[in-house]
Amino acid sequence: MANSPTGDSVIGRVVRLLNAFDRQQPSMTLSGLAHRAALPLTTAHRLVEELVKYGLIERDPDGQLRVGLRLWELAARGSRALTLREIALPYMEDVQAAVHRYTTLAILDHGSVLYLERLSAPDSALENALDAGHIAQRAPVHSTSSGLVLLAYSPSALQEEVLAGPLEKVTGETITDPQVIRRHLAEIRQRGYAAIPGIAVKEWTGIAVPVFGAGNNIAAVLNATVPRGETNVPFTLPALLTAAHGISRALGADSGPARPRRR
Amino acid sequence: MANSPTGDSVIGRVVRLLNAFDRQQPSMTLSGLAHRAALPLTTAHRLVEELVKYGLIERDPDGQLRVGLRLWELAARGSRALTLREIALPYMEDVQAAVHRYTTLAILDHGSVLYLERLSAPDSALENALDAGHIAQRAPVHSTSSGLVLLAYSPSALQEEVLAGPLEKVTGETITDPQVIRRHLAEIRQRGYAAIPGIAVKEWTGIAVPVFGAGNNIAAVLNATVPRGETNVPFTLPALLTAAHGISRALGADSGPARPRRR
Hints:
Arc Repressor Mutant, subunit A, Beta-Lactamase, 3-stranded antiparallel β-sheet, 10 helices, 19% strand, globular, WH-like_DNA-bd_sf (chains A, B)
C-alpha cells in the first residue's frame, strides 16, 4: 500500500477526506476539503479527482464537492444498518402515528450511540435543539436515554469501558459519576426502559426501550423524546414498548412478553 | 497513486471490493469476495485488512465479511440522497397511510433508476416479485413507470442517450421501440403522470408522478404499485399527486398547482 510521508495509506487518506463532510457542512471547495482533512492540497486534488471518477465524491455545477451518491449506494446495499432500519421503519411509523413524537432508532457502535433512523414532524421544535438524533449522527452513550438502555443490556466489559470515561457533561444534568450510572443501568434492566430528563437536552426527556435480536441480545434502542415535566411518559411508553416488541419479533428474538432479561 | 499490474488504482480496487456485496449476497468469505471482485486473493486480503481497520468492511464472528457500518455513516452524513429521502419520507408515509401500497422514491442517476426509499406493508406480495424497488437498487429507465417519468422531464440529450439503447425486454410487455417510448414521454408530460401496466412486473402497474425541485427541475419520482387490471389507478393517483406536490414545495419548487411544465 502506498503510504504518504505522514504514514497514512491511500485508504486512510480517503477516509479522512470523506470524514470531512458532515451534516453541518455537506459541501465545500477543494481547498476547504483539503484543510478539513488535514491533507496537502496536491494530495487532496489527486485523490478527489479519482473519487469523482468513481462517483464517491460529486462536484456540484458550482464546483463545490460533496459525498457522492455512489458511495451511499455501495454502503446501503449490503449494510446491516439498512436491514435493521428497514425492518424497524413500519413499527416506528406506528409510534409516530400514535404519539406524534420525535422517534429514533439507534445502535451502540464503537463506544457511542449511532442513529440509524428518525421520524419527526417537519416542524418539530426539538429538531433544531437535538442535532445528535439525526441519521448517521453519534452521541455519547452516557448522555442519552438511548445510550443508557444500550449500555444496560451490553456485556459488563463494554459497560466498564464506557464508564472508565471520559464522561463529558453535555448538559448540567448529564450524569458523569460511574456509580450513579451503574445504579441507573440496574434500574433500566429492572424496569425495561429509561426515561431520564435533561441529560442530553435540558428541556426534554428521552424515553428509550430496548430492541432485541436473535438470542435475545440487544440489537437496537427505540426512543421517543417528550417535553420535560409534562406527564407524557405514561402515554408514550406503551407505544414504544409495543413497537419495540414488534421489531424484536421481526428480528428473531424469542416471542413472549417483551420483558427484558436480566443478565 | 499506486496502480496494480491490471492498471487499477487502490481506489478502483476498493470500489470493486465494495461493489461485490449486494442485497442477494450481503456477506461472504474472503475468497468469495476476491472471486466476485476479480482480484488476486493476496491483493484482496491486504485491502480487506485495511478496510476492516477503518470499519469500511466488517468481519462477522463467523469470519464472513460484509459492508461496514462506518461506510454507511460516511456516506449518509453528507449525502443528497439522504436529504431528499428525509424530506420525502413524511409525505411517503401519508401516501402509505392513505392507499396502503408499495411506495418508492427514486432518482435518475448515471442512466438508470436508483431507488432511495420504499415503504411497504411487511407482507406485501409485491416485495418478492419486485427486487428493483428495494433501497439502493437500480432498474432500467425504460422498463418502469418511475423511469419513464424521470425521462419525460429530463433534457432531450439525456432522453436520446437512453433511447439509443440497449433497451432490454424485462417482461414481454416492456416497451423497447424508441418511437413508442417517445410517444409515452409526450403523454406523460401532458398528463403529469405515468401508469403503464406490466412493463416491469407482469401482474403489476406502477403509478409514477414527478417531484420537482428548485427551478422546477425534475428532482425525483414518487411511485405506488397496484395490482394490474384493478381500478386502483383513479384511487391511488390523487394521493401520489398530493404527496409529490408537498415534497416539491419542501424542495423549493414554485408553489402553485403541481402541474408539470412542458419543456
